[in-house]
Design a protein that fits this description.
heterotrimer, A mainly alpha (306), B mainly alpha (306), C alpha/beta (421), B: 306 residues, mainly alpha, MetI-like fold, 14 helices, 3% strand, globular, C: 421 residues, alpha/beta, D-Maltodextrin-Binding Protein, domain 2, 2 domains, ten-stranded mixed sheet, 17 helices, 15% strand
């Protein structure tokens, strides 16, 4: 129902102007300008054009490249774990809560989404305190369930084997409300008659889920996946709040977002380099754009066609 | 939606076999076996934070699991009273909690107002008129959905400074408005296209201006979509840490999230004060969410189905 | 409709501005990393405000590990607090020279009250410009729980073997001997390595030799220092890799550990929490050293400068000038036991046994400063302190040997530093 009304230019200007102005000045311009700044550097106090030298430095200078590849690897781990844990668990919870026969569905729905309403500052501090061996809340609970053996001797957030995973799990615990709500929406939108018909044909709950519901929620799964992907590259707060900007232990929880912050704004005992910072931002920009385009032109179109 | 579900339940109840089989009873319990532990997992950290914020630092370490007023059967029944408000006293003496809340309310409501107003206006133009460059404009506005604006922070600081807005609430308001616009335009344009042409044309015949049509005819019709946009943007703005940290770190313009996280940083050695600050930041969100959770989640899910 | 909307919009945008309505009093914001000293600073500032009723100073500290980041971000944007607490040497030189964030205050009346050594930490290499008013030094050593020592019949240790014998005795009694950890890696670097090396390496003589290229991190004395710190790992709290600075700052005064490898700056905080008697002993010496052949790290630590872009330069200068006075120095000394004033004023020592103990070492031993702070932190990628800090947790985990960490530190320094330049 495409409309074709012709507009007066002054109507257009008033309708479009404010939004375009705010959006351009405070979103589009800074993003584009950041791309430009990545081609500059400060040499002896003067800002000079250096072409692609910053990118060369990022990839070939061991000081930067080691951190860059390290952070990229952790971003990858973040994405994989979110996809492997957050989204399936979110789907499971949504499937359980969406069942029309469930008592207390409204209660569960509210509770499961509660952590998602909280600021990462609250969540991060809360979990850092609980994971701290000095207070020992998490360790006490594991001991109570006779799981003391899995407590790492270096503590959860200080051990290179567990720190990244624990930070990611806290992130999953917090953000699971989003996939949960998205899946819940698409599950409750499914026409009940379809399911009733299948039941009459003798299908069980399990096969109804896989044969009828699952294909219908695939587009939602696609949206959840791309949201996870983008969210992963703006992840900064979780690590910043829980592990500080040096992302310890030994940069074991470093993400590109934290690397960007540390480089652009400096941190204890290092010099801020705005231009290398924008270089890292530009690379992240490229990765996100590639991922999003792949999604739109590859995956989503196929999902919709199915 | 709730009405529909109730109707379904009534329908299936009529068709149920009078006595439930054991198998049915067990399968009705299974969802709760997963949902109850998960609910505990979601709420326990919040419980620990709130309970321990009401003790002094020695009791917090000694008895983290006992509420401030409790009882014990050791040496005969007696009450255990370990309540202390020292943490809260610290927070109110040392942090401008009310100022922070005021700032957060101003920033969140003004940004939401701008998003809804300018977002509706541009969406109306995009859905109502055909004009040269409209497709490009829609694409331009949509780009911001996927690219996190914080990648442009370095330039954004320069722009905000140039405009004389550094360390001011308008800086945060405008940046949050810019980052909320893409989703708003995306959702609102979809909805506005579905408002029947005849309705608008009838108004035009009656001599209504284009502005009148938008504000008194179209906007009331798409209220659910406006609510969705509101809900989508509310939490990220209220909970945001990055932009207050980089654009408005001054004490006078601190939002709750930044103010209390800075306080928490300053009082890292005083856990009761830290926990009191976290609780204060948490409680208003918890109360509001508790009251409006149904509207809140249905707002989110409506957006998701689109 | 349009007008109403526009009006609403304008009002909404102007609303927040009313918060900044000015009155006659000029407000100066003072940035600092001393979050533990809010009350003490407020007391000192009250003295200043009583004399200068038209100036109000707001002390606004940031968490110590985030302070540099925040100041650098703000300064590079031409913003930041009016008054800036300065770290010594290279860090602040960067703020002055590269970020143009600090004002040149070489002509400030009152600076003549400070020695060249004190001013040197906050001046350009050629001494032509000074940008912060020196305030205080901090001294490293060990603070201990006297009750635990008495109960176990322990004496203050002087040598390395005595020190570890004390640690063994405490551990056998089921108490955590050392309150130090590695989640905030700077603590083990500063209160571990920088605490010990002066006694192992002949203090100031070796530090100057390193600047001229004659001494190296790989010399035996530094390797022995790393080795001695590494031995602490067995006596630190369980899971020390997951424990932060703020945690150990609470552990010790709550009586959960016996010894705190310290900087004297902890004294006010510990006094406010601990309900037991505390004592202090000097950094221990290698066994073969004579008692009088000792060194301490008496680090020029803290100063205050003014933002080059402050809106109130005159008022900020008035405040800085006040910082050079005898009145301030005495107030600072009284309020901040554990910080030892740098000016050449005649001062009465505060009545604090812990602070007095630290201060007494100055007359007993030679003084030096932290190993890398002067000149060895100028290469952002091979900052001598940051390189060692990043590797200290690995040393404590046993993933690096003392020889290896010394080699890394030396190689990274050799990659850029030209001795004697």
């Amino acid at each position: 129902m495409r409309t074709t009304k012709r507009a007066h230019w002054h109507h257009l200007l008033i309708f479009i102007g404010p939004a375009v102005l705010i959006y351009s000045v405070f979103l589009a311009l800074p993003l584009v300008d950041s791309l430009r700044l990545s081609l500059y550097s400060r040499v002896d106090g003067e800002v000079v054009f250096v072409g692609l030298q910053n990118f060369d430095k990022l990839l070939n200078n061991p000081f930067f490249s080691e951190r860059f590849w390290g952070a990229l690897k952790h971003n990858f781990a973040w994405f994989v774990l979110f996809m492997a844990i957050q989204n399936p668990v979110g789907l499971l919870l949504a499937a359980l809560v969406s069942s029309p026969k469930l008592k207390g569905a409204a209660f569960y729905r509210t509770v499961i989404f509660t952590p998602t309403t909280m600021s990462i500052v609250i969540i991060g501090w809360a979990w850092t305190l609980m994971l701290n061996p000095l207070w020992g809340i998490v360790n006490d609970i594991l001991n109570f369930f006779r799981l003391g053996a899995i407590i790492p001797s270096r503590g959860w957030l200080g051990s290179e084997d567990t720190a990244l995973i624990v930070v990611i799990l806290v992130g999953i615990w917090q953000y699971i409300g989003l996939p949960f709500v998205l899946f819940l929406a698409s599950l409750t939108a499914i026409d009940e008659e379809l399911i009733e018909a299948a039941r009459v044909d003798g299908a069980t709950g399990w096969s109804i889920f896989w044969r009828i519901k699952f294909p219908l929620i695939l587009p939602t799964a696609g949206i959840v996946a791309i949201l996870t992907f983008v969210g992963n590259f703006s992840a900064f707060d979780n690590v910043y709040v829980m592990q500080g900007s040096t992302a310890g232990p030994d940069y074991g929880t470093d993400l590109l977002g934290v690397f960007f912050y540390r480089t652009a704004f400096g941190t204890l005992g290092s010099v801020p380099d705005l231009y290398m910072g924008t270089t890292i931002a530009t690379v992240m920009f490229g990765i996100i754009l590639t991922g999003v385009l792949l999604y739109f032109f590859g995956i989503q179109q196929r999902l919709i066609r199915d | 939606m709730a009405v529909q579900v109730d109707a379904k339940q009534g329908y299936s109840a009529e068709n149920l076999v009078p006595t439930k089989s054991w198998g049915q009873r067990i399968s009705a319990i299974i969802p709760h076996l997963i949902l109850i532990p998960y609910s505990l997992l979601a709420l326990f950290p919040l419980f620990i934070i709130i309970v321990n914020s009401l003790k002094d630092r020695r009791d917090l370490f000694r008895t983290p699991y006992i509420p401030p007023l409790w009882f014990s059967f050791e040496d005969g029944f007696h009450f255990v009273y370990i309540f202390s408000s020292s943490g809260y006293q610290q927070v109110f003496e040392r942090a401008n909690v009310l100022l922070y809340f005021g700032n957060s309310i101003v920033v969140t409501s003004a940004a939401l107002f701008l998003i809804l107003l300018t977002g509706s206006m541009i969406s109306f133009a995009l859905s109502e008129y055909s004009f040269w460059g409209s497709r490009f404009l829609a694409l331009y506005m949509a780009l911001g959905i996927m690219i996190p604006i914080r990648l442009g922070t370095v330039s954004l600081i320069g722009i905000v400074r140039f405009l004389g807005l550094y360390n001011s609430l308008p800086a945060l308001i405008l940046v949050y408005a810019a980052s909320g616009l893409p989703i708003a335009v995306f959702v609102l344009t979809e909805y506005m296209r579905q408002v029947p042409m005849e309705l608008k044309d009838a108004a035009r015949v009656d001599g209504a201006s284009e502005y009148r049509i938008l504000f008194t005819l179209v906007m009331p019709v798409i209220r659910p979509a406006l609510a969705t946009v509101l809900v989508f943007n509310m939490l990220p703005i209220w909970n945001g840490l990055w932009f207050p940290l980089t654009l408005a770190p001054n004490e006078k313009v601190r939002t709750v999230t930044l103010g209390l996280s800075a306080f928490a940083g300053q009082y890292k050695t005083d856990w009761t004060a830290l926990l009191a600050a976290l609780t204060l930041a948490m409680i208003p969100v918890l109360i509001l969410y508790g009251i409006f959770s149904r509207q809140f989640i249905s707002g989110l899910t409506r957006g998701a189905v689109k | 409709m349009k007008k109403v909307t526009l009006l609403a919009f304008v009002i909404l945008m102007l609303l927040p501005m009313t918060i900044y309505a000015q009155d006659d009093v000029v407000e100066l914001v003072m940035g600092s990393w001393r979050t533990e000293d809010i009350e003490q600073w407020e007391a000192m500032i009250a003295l200043f405000e009583a004399e200068n009723p038209n100036i109000k100073v707001i002390f606004e500290p940031t968490l110590n590990t985030e302070y540099n980041t925040q100041i650098q971000t703000l300064l590079s944007a031409g913003e930041g607090p009016d008054l800036i607490t300065c770290r010594p040497f290279d860090t602040t030189l960067l703020w002055y020279q590269d970020l143009n964030g600090l004002a040149d205050i070489s002509d400030l009346p009152g600076l003549e009250n400070f020695s060249d050594v004190a001013l040197g930490a906050w001046s350009t290499d050629d001494g032509s410009a000074t940008y912060c008013v020196p305030m205080a030094t901090v001294i490293h050593g060990f603070i201990y729980n006297v009750e635990i020592f008495d109960e176990l019949g322990l004496e203050e240790p002087r040598t390395e073997s005595e020190f570890f014998a004390v640690l063994d005795a405490i551990q056998e009694a089921g108490i955590t001997p050392l309150a130090i950890s590695t989640k905030d890696a700077w603590t083990i670097t500063t209160m571990g390595f920088n605490n010990l090396w002066p006694n192992f390496c002949d203090g100031e003589n070796t530090r100057l030799a390193m600047l001229s290229g004659e001494a190296k991190h790989t010399d035996d004395c530094f390797v022995n220092t790393f080795e001695s710190v590494q031995r602490w790992a067995d006596y630190m709290p369980d899971g020390f890799q997951s424990i932060g600075y703020a945690d150990t700052q609470q552990m010790f005064p709550l009586g959960l550990a016996a010894i705190y490898p310290a900087g004297s700056w902890e004294i006010p905080l510990f006094n406010s929490i601990a309900d037991f008697e505390m004592g202090a002993f000097r950094p221990y010496q290698p066994d073969d050293r004579a008692p009088e052949d000792c060194w301490i790290d008496d680090h020029v630590d803290i100063a205050v400068g003014m933002n080059a872009n402050t809106d109130h330069p005159e008022e900020a200068r008035i405040f800085l000038e006040w910082l050079t006075t005898q009145e301030f120095a005495q107030a600072f000394f009284n309020n901040q036991p554990g910080f030892f004033p740098l000016g050449q004023h005649e001062l009465e020592a505060p009545d604090d046994p812990l602070a007095a103990a630290f201060l007494s070492w100055r007359s007993e031993c030679g003084s030096t400063i932290r190993l890398w702070d002067q000149r060895l932190r100028r290469d952002p990628e091979n900052d001598g302190y940051a390189v060692t800090r990043d590797n200290m947790p690995l040393l404590m985990n046993g993933e690096l040997t003392p020889q290896e960490i010394a080699q890394i530190a030396q190689d990274r320094m050799d990659s850029w530093y030209v001795p004697g330049e």
